[in-house]
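Annex B. Sample input.
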Amino acid sequence: MLYRKIGITRIAIVCFAIWSFKSVEVAAKNADWTEAKKTGAATAGAWKEWCENWRHQGNAPVQMTLTPGKDESELNFSWYSTEDDLESNIRVADNEQFEGAIYLRVITKKATKGFNYNRAIVANLQANKTYYYSYMVAGRWTKAYEFQTKDSSNFQFVFVGDVQIGSSYDNIPEGEEEEQGQERAVCNDSFNWNATLQAAYKRAKNLSFIVTAGDQIQSGNFKNSEATYKTFRENEIEYAGYLLPELLRKIPVATTIGNHDCLSGNYSYHFNNPNSKMGYGATYAGEDYYFSYGDTIFLMLNTNNENADEHEAFIEKALSSNKDARWRIVAMHQDIFGSGEHSNDEEIVSLRKALLPVFRKYDIDLALAGHDHTYARAFIADARGLTIFMNHYAIIERESKRIIQLYAKACNDIVCYSSCQGILFLTANSSSGSKYYKLIEKQQDYIEAR
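Annex B, continued. Sample output.
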């Protein structure tokens, strides 16, 4: 939980990974994984039911995606339809019968082969109210889906690490001799992803939205993406698995672009991100975007584009449009203050050196990241003497250590800190169990917990 030193604004963040699931040693380099059928969530027929549901809906990524709008008064929609589905429509009302419903303007464009993507935005939403929506699939209205707006002056959001559906494809299930392959991996990983969402929702029923650290899916054309990013289809089955959990029909998700997402245009088809056409931080999947919620601004950086000058220009422009924002939160994929095997990569060290001064310049309070599939927490104090940042390491003085110890003692699962004294960096674990990396052998001085 983050507390501003001045004022009473507070934000509760629930950071989830599948902590209680057993990791299984496998031959895949640097990675363990969670075999879904062996988890506690798979009991009482839940795993069998999920597999049957997956076989029924599999490889058809037509589920609705909800994304936060530009502020708390809006909600963004995006969904796929088949190319021969000539009518796309969506309606929103405050009742399940859709009496007095608003029919939203839908923009339809071509997605991957066989599909179009559809986008719509509902505006003028009232706080603390229940709404319903329905959209057309193959000429028929879907059932009524419910979503609830919250109080933006005191809200919760859930932060999750790399979902990376399909990443367990080269693992061998217990009792078998061959790798499970993509389709079984998607079923396995999406089951675990659903379990994480259910656990998060059980604990934080008042959440307004979810923030991801990127890498929603696994597959991309790493060798020839420039030629295929508009036509690559091999990850659509993984997006179908990512979108399968029913909770995603009612909870908006603000996604970050990961290094696996950024190699195809499909990410940009599935997610209708607000303020996403500013021209900064672009890759094949999209670019930097932002949204505000109450007195908080969320700055979603596409750090697969390593141009720190572009990210700084984006942050400056976004903040100039939100001068009243008291909280400034960055979300990005690459964990510049993590402690996993990526943390010493050249690109990470370079981003660390380039972005920290930018974050300090613009008074960022919290930076959320993933990429390493291992939890880490680092409080990097401001430049006024608590922390000296030198040679890509943090030399923490005695007073800074004392403060960090006080934060750690607050509670087992709550971290309190004064945002006036520095930036809190959080790196999330895997939220699907599709892949776990190892921590580096020697913990960096800047890491408070991992």
